[in-house]
Amino acid sequence: MRRSSVSRQTPQPERVFALLALACILPGLLAPKVAAKDSPGVSTQPAVEATTPEIGGKKLDKYDVTRIGQRDIGHGFNLYSLKREHELGQNLAASFDRMMKAVRDPVVNEYINRLAQKLIGNSDAVVPFTIKVVDSGEIPRAYGLPGGFLYVDSALIVSADDEAELATVMAHEIAHVAARHATRALSRKQMSRIVNSVAFMAGPIGAGVADAGGIAGPLSVKKFSRESEYEADLLGIEYAYAAGYDPQAMMDALEKLHAVEVRRSEELAKVPGYHTVSKIPFQKRIARSFADYPLTEDRIQRLEEEITTYLPNRGSYILDTDEFQEVKGRLLAARAPTLRHHPGDEENKGPVLRRAADADGLPDSAEGTQETQTSSRIASSRQRSVSNTLVTGASSRLR
Questions:
Q1: Long-range contacts of 43-48 (CB under 8 A, 24+ apart)
Q2: Pick from 6, 235, 215, 229: which is nearest to 125 by CA?
């Protein structure tokens, strides 16, 4: 009996081999590859670059801005088909529609839709987009959902200094959709869970693989998320550049975000024990390893290098338009408080006075002065006092 019990717990050779194979494949599936020239690309192509397209014997860079739309952006390990990704986006969009307040101004919606389509036409996106303007609060942001659903918050339009700044932020979200970052991250999470589930069925060896995967899997997904943000920055400025906008506007938007983060850090510094935590060895490096997003200062530094590397100089760029300022003004006017007037306030600008009745019970004439009205009230009071005295005297005599 004991032998049979032991034999059931001992993993079979085929199962051990499968686990070891998964352990070898998992890092390749989960860890994003860095593109040529240390760019923030995410690729699952093998190290051999024989598949890199060539023209005239010269290899083409994945982020060559002259080849937008022909660069296979978004290809890589992904468990989601485009159809399934669109269905996922539809479900998320339905939830967004229930939570968000839509902006109904047709002028604003038409302008944002036209601007977004201009950027999409100069992107690597292969899916049609649905664009909506929402009002969710005071935080300026945009949301790019998988499958081609783009939400632009009115706070982002109001906070932008010019059209180029708005365009680059929208292009960043379009880049997330074009590169399919959301479903590729979900695929890595699901693969990590699959490996852990299979490993726990294989006894001690499987438990060791599961422990390693339980640590490496989430960290690899977080690293992929950070690299995806870097890639969306680069693709975003390329899409904005291809549409004619100044890519430096993205730097302005990130500088604003960095200023907000600095203010938050100053507030956190006032919390007791904050300085103790900051003295931990390699604290910043550990924090960056476990972070889902890269530090904004790192994004700014990386973009400065990429702009000079990937974008040829131009003589002129679109920075702002009168139409953007008009749309921004409409949104600001809609946010201004509204003073409500009672009917007839247009004729009577001053306060409404209620006049007392005279001795006959009739209201004073509109032409009477304030002094005449006061005299009438005094006379009425005296007359009522005399009447009361006569009534009291008559009562006493009746007694």
A1: 43/75, 43/76, 44/75, 44/76, 44/77
A2: 235
Q: ∠174-221-259 over CA atoms, to 5°?
A: 60
Tell me, rounded to whole angstroms, the distance of Cα 8 from its chain centroid. 52
Residue 150 CA to residue 120 CA, distance in Å, equals 11
**Distance set, CA 136 to CA 101, 108, 161, 198 (Å):** 6, 16, 20, 43
Return the residue matching tokens 């081999």.
Answer: 17
Give backbone dihedrals phi and psi of 339, rounded to 5 degrees, phi first: -90, 120
Question: Locate tokens 């007694």: which residue?
Answer: 399
Distance of alpha carbon 396 from alpha carbon 391, whole angstroms: 9
Distance (Å, rounded) from C-alpha 306 to C-alpha 38? Answer: 10
DSSP 336-355: S------TTTTT--SPPPPP
97 is written with which tokens? Answer: 């529609």
Q: What does the alpha-carbon distance between residue 365 and residue 228 come to, in Å, rounded to a whole number?
A: 79
Please tell me the pTM assigned to this model: 0.66
Cα–Cα distance list, 355 to 365, 372, 384, 394 (Å): 9, 12, 18, 33
Q: Where are the beta strands (DSSP E) in 60-176?
A: 101-102, 130-135, 142-145, 149-153
Of 133, 108, 132, 229, the closest CA to residue 173 belongs to 229
| Backbone φ and ψ of 59, nearest 5° | -70, 140
Asked if 230 contacts 59 with a C-beta cutoff of 8 angstroms, the reply is no
Task: Give the count of beta carbons closer than 10 Å to the beta carbon of residue 214.
Answer: 15
Three-state DSSP class for residue 50? coil
Comparing CA positions, the residue from 383, 337, 335 lying closest to residue 358 is: 383
Q: Note the pLDDT tens digit of each residue in 87-124.
A: 999 999 999 999 999 999 999 999 999 999 999 999 99
The pLDDT-based confidence of 181 (bands split at 50, 70, 90) is: very high
More confident residue, 296 or 370: 296
130-142 pLDDT, tens digit per residue, is 999 999 888 899 9
Residue 361 pLDDT > 60 = no
Phi first, then psi, for residue 246 (nearest 5°) are -75, 115
